[in-house]
Amino acid sequence: MTGQEHERRGLGCDDAYSYGVAGNYVVAAVADGAGAVTGTSAWGAYAACQSVLTDGLQPAFVENFRSGDPEQLMRWLFDNALTRVTRQAAALGVEPMRLSTTLCVAVADHGRAVFGQIGDGVIAAELYDGRVGSLLIEEKDGYANTTSFLQSDRAFEGSFRTQSVDGVTAFALSTDGMSYKITDIGTGEAYEPFFRDSWQHVRAGARADQFAALLRGITDDQTGDDKTMVLAAVSGSAVGAVTDSSPAPGTSVAELETVPLTRGARRRGLWRRRR
């Protein structure tokens, strides 16, 4: 959703999202293009999320997630995302930093979830015992409004974080436009009532447009920034195979390519999702 400040200035949305659900397996991503290069950064956010969706739904990736090192696979997703964003910049004829974007990713099944992040997005998870907490909170150096981007120098050495969690029953990925409303801005910890209510709405079958209307009703978010959130929760009803993503900022001038893995996979189980 385009932030109020962006609308006031006649700018578009620099956020992007993607998700894919197949039985008990889900992959999701949100990205926030840098406001300093608004417009071109929207392409960076879009290309990064499309890359995660493309690779995360490969049958071989699904099988390797269940049997291999999930944190190493998360790094593979981020490496490929950077490669594709760089290719998109070349296709647009601009430097890669003009497509600067943060990136939050989740890959999960009913056994475990792994999360990855570069930048200042929000990741929250609900566990089987009912606990709700924030994950991979970014450590700020000096200024609260600074962050690292996928293209930043030494981003993978200094900002890339991953965490594997067993027993996840719901999760949320959000760009930072909602931070003042859904987290303790001092500690980064999740505001539990917001997430519990949001996941309950997902489990009850609330539509994405209903949640978007709720976000539009929040006028005092203290940022005016774009707002993008993907919610996923374990459900008792089947949802089948579903994919969705934000639209491209315009007509794409670069094709996303798939970097192949090997081996096949089976998918089964139940996740519900909302953006």
Automatic annotation (TrEMBL):
Query: Which residues span the membrane?
Result: none
Domain (PPM-type phosphatase): give its ranges: 2-215
Q: Which Gene3D superfamilies match?
A: PPM-type phosphatase domain
Which Pfam families does this entry report, sorted A to Z?
A: PP2C_2
Q: Which InterPro entries match?
A: PPM-type-like_dom_sf, PPM-type_phosphatase-like_dom
| Identification of the protein by name | PPM-type phosphatase domain-containing protein
Ranked from the top, the taxonomy reads: Bacteria, Bacillati, Actinomycetota, Actinomycetes, Mycobacteriales
